[in-house]
Amino acid sequence: MEINDFTINSIKSEYKKGNLTPKELLDYVFKGIKLYDSKINSFITLTEEYAYKAIESLKLDEIDLKPLWGIPVAIKDNMCFRGFKTTCSSKILENFIPIYTATAVQRLIDAGAIIVGKTNLDEFAMGSSTENSAFFTTSNPWDLERVPGGSSGGSASAVAARFVPLATGSDTGGSIRQPASFCGVVGFKPTYGTVSRYGLVAFASSLDQIGPFGTKVKDVELAFSVMSGKDDMDSTSHPYQFTSVNRNIKEYKVGVIKELYEAEGFDIEVLNSLNNVIKILKSEGLKVDVCSLPHLKYSLPVYYLVATSEASSNLARFDGVRYGLRVEGKDIIETFSKTRGQGFGSEVKRRIMLGTYALSSGYYDAYYLKASKVRTLIVNDFEKAFREYDFLICPTSPTTAFKKGDKTSDPLSMYLSDIATIPVNLAGLPGISIPSGCDNKGLPIGLQIIGRPFNDSEVLNFADQLESIINFEARPQLGGI
Ligand SMILES: NC(=O)C[C@H](N)C(=O)O
């Protein structure tokens, strides 16, 4: 069996023509994972037995009713899937088995998707390289010496390696878009509130958002249409209803974010790729200008106060009593501290300490409150820019995939990898990363497209058309199955 184009549409059309069955596709998927995942390490858990059982309930006459009928999907291991381990790549949850399924995951299942496994991440989604996983580091399928990005590096690499056509991620400061960029795939962070967070292990609740990875924008759109919408189990979920948009790309006005275009620290080849996109858009007749969002330069400090404050509160529940690991001490205080001391890795501890400090009395006003106020200035900058432009564009990340170990001893340089994605979370906006080319090492470069809140369909429509024009065909070579 030859599977050339690993898109949902082509898989479904092969199913309909009778050229492929869900069983054959699962055989192909698990064979690929078994052959190559020992090199890449995308998966923490495989749900093979479940998957083969799940396809038994697929009825061919429902294929047009279920958008993801027979589509294998990988789930980031910070989303609950009942009966299977949800580790968050942390020792503290190493053996945690949830008793319920996350709404976004359930909606994929209800649409016919087949869960094939849970993917690796930076512990509790804190990191940009997947090197903070307590279990193992994932490799980038384009170059095994390099990181796949993070924190959803397992999902991004699984799609890049063509293990699966679709995967889920969560994005607090770039965790879907940055690994998508490093792995040469499409990653979409929807508007905050459009996808329920119920069953997603919380990192920073005002920033976390679930979204999909795919090889093409249309696949990501389909997954988003299935996952999005009101959920009574998440009070921050919005009564959003997906409707697809079909507007000609020429009608849009695009702003290039000055602070992420003329900024230091961006590789010349990454900027050249952006320049190339600008040229393409102009030659298509679009209006493209450089526009300034002056408060964006505060995004990183604001994020590392807001996100860590929320994390210090969210992660307080892991105490050896309610969930996961318990290391016995002579009294309850010692049990707490031994459990947390041994259960959390160093990046998680760093963030809990920073957040606890920022929230503590006497410092709250100077740090958390101030950061919240500056966050509003960033939101206002975006609002103003969107009065003029339909979309804002910039590189997804300042560099292409870096080598393993390059940034592990310097947290600040790791944090800078998210300089272009973090502002989008602070403002709750939809943002997508699509491949825009390769650098001279043959590594993929990502372009980020940012839209107005709840204009997710417009972002996807624009990205889809731009993707066709760019026509990025390169893919990592792992060898055949
Ligand atoms: N969770 C994310 O979106 C990842 C971001 N790099 C962080 O470490 O916070």
Automatic annotation (TrEMBL):
Catalytic activity field: L-glutamyl-tRNA(Gln) + L-glutamine + ATP + H2O = L-glutaminyl-tRNA(Gln) + L-glutamate + ADP + phosphate + H(+)
EC number(s) per entry: 6.3.5.7
Catalytic residue positions: 76 (charge relay system), 151 (charge relay system), 175 (acyl-ester intermediate)
GO CC field: glutamyl-tRNA(Gln) amidotransferase complex
GO molecular function, one term: ATP binding
Gene3D superfamilies reported in the protein's UniProt record: Amidase signature (AS) domain
Superkingdom classification of source: Bacteria
Keywords: ATP-binding, Ligase, Nucleotide-binding, Protein biosynthesis, Transferase
GO BP annotations listed: translation
EC top class, as a word: ligase
The Amidase domain, residue ranges: 24-460
Family of the protein in this entry: Belongs to the amidase family. GatA subfamily.
Subunit (UniProt): Heterotrimer of A, B and C subunits.
Purpose of the protein: Allows the formation of correctly charged Gln-tRNA(Gln) through the transamidation of misacylated Glu-tRNA(Gln) in organisms which lack glutaminyl-tRNA synthetase. The reaction takes place in the presence of glutamine and ATP through an activated gamma-phospho-Glu-tRNA(Gln).
Protein name in the entry: Glutamyl-tRNA(Gln) amidotransferase subunit A
Organism this protein belongs to: Thermodesulfobium narugense DSM 14796
Lineage: Bacteria, Pseudomonadati, Thermodesulfobiota, Thermodesulfobiia, Thermodesulfobiales
